[in-house]
Amino acid sequence: MRSRTKHLLQLLSSTERRVWVSTFVFFGLMTFVWAAAVPYFSGPDEPSHVARAWSVAHGEPLGKDPNFGGVRIVKVPSFLSAEHVSTDCYRIDPNAPAGCFSLFASDSQVETPTSAGAQFPFFYLPVGLPFLVADGGLGLILARWVSGAIAAAFVASAMVTARSSNSRRWLPPALFLACPPMFIYIASVTNPSGLEIAASVGMWISGLVLASEKTISKRLVLRFGVAVCTVLVARQLGPLWVAVALATLGLLAGRDRVRALAKSRSMQLCAVAAASVGLIWAGWMLLAHPLATESNASGSQMSATNILTTQLGRLTQVAEESIGVFGWLEVRVPVFTYAVWMSAVVGLLALCLMFGARRYAIGAIGLLFGTVLIQTAGEFRSVESIGFVWQGRYSLPMLVGVPLIAGVGLAAGRRLPSVSVLGKSFIGGVLWSALFLAFAQSVRRYSVGATGSILFWKSEDWSPPVSAVLLLVVFGLAAAGWVLMSRPASDSISDYRDSASGGYEAEEPSPSSR
User: Fold this and answer.
1) Per-residue pLDDT at 384
2) What's the rounded Cα separation, in Å, for the pair 240 and 246?
3) Could you give the dihedral angle defined by the CA atoms of residues 332, 335, 336 and 342, in that order, rounded to the nearest 10 degrees?
């Protein structure tokens, strides 16, 4: 069994191209299955995002301004109008199955409000393209698949970076932990958070390798630049996440490495591209005001002390949401999943503290505390107008960097005691179980309710378009492949760089840097 697993992993990861394709297939398949396994519009704010995607793809980059908050009025088919996409019949009560909702059939077009109407159109254009060839349920599923495929492409590139770096012993499993069930789920529905988190994973992992290794790979710089530019425009707070990442990476790299990177021609081009995208984002902010909010009854007048106390009390809730609270925050995963993911991340941090390079351990913990501070500042800004609204997925663009920093730190530190094959298999099995149970619970919740029958496929009130059993099997196989690709790599780095698929091309230093 051991030799077969090792042979399969070598077959899937013998070249950079195979690593990319294998990871894209496994991760993408998980998002595709999840997209088909949950009801239409069950994703957080999905009706607004779908309406925005349809209108952008049909030539309406910015709808009419009704003068309240970031809401815009756009023209969409009737089946996407606000009056026909409400899922209140089941989403308010987690024990209510989704069978009460049905898709409204109509070809007429109407105007409808969308809270995503002022958001930058970068995410919405590709996701909206399927609506040019298909409407109704097929268009909705295809839009989700496009979102999942884009996220899978970023993760696949991140895995190539992880498995071909000097930190390949620890970066692949750290990358697995940086992709909690919440990320896979949100990438499976129509929501720009999936793109934001996926690009953040790429930004952190490529930035860490650039900061920690001596060579400057043009291909790696390209991945870093694409990820940074995508984070900038994916959602409203993109520039903040980029600033935090650059500051953290600069501190971890040290002054000499930062100077070497600054003299690199490819990094200079990357900086120019990022600055240009940042200017475009700033212009859109001035034009559309996507950060505007509308006051409502959920806002409250509280003293600074009460706001801080309440926010600190919500940290556990937000942490759980970053691992997996799906839907409109009504679909909780099993306690086992929360316990496994939190324990694994904390364990990785502890190992980095004991055996890794100290500056990386400090950097990972500092990023964790910095995330809490930014979250708290965000709540202070919004509490009087719309209440406490910060969700765990909002923090993931920074939180994904925590296990990745710890992974690089472990690779740069003292050698750890070896783990037996049985131990590796047990850890992989536990992580697979945590991921699989999160998916299964999401399907169960909509089929029979959150506390319905364990064998929900036998008595389902709502059923996905494909057999629930088949979806469970396919997801389980894809998740097993994702776990396999996340095993520590032991290949020689030259196997990648000298492969026929092409490897990293180190940049010659400019005359001024010699």
Assistant:
1) 67
2) 10
3) 90
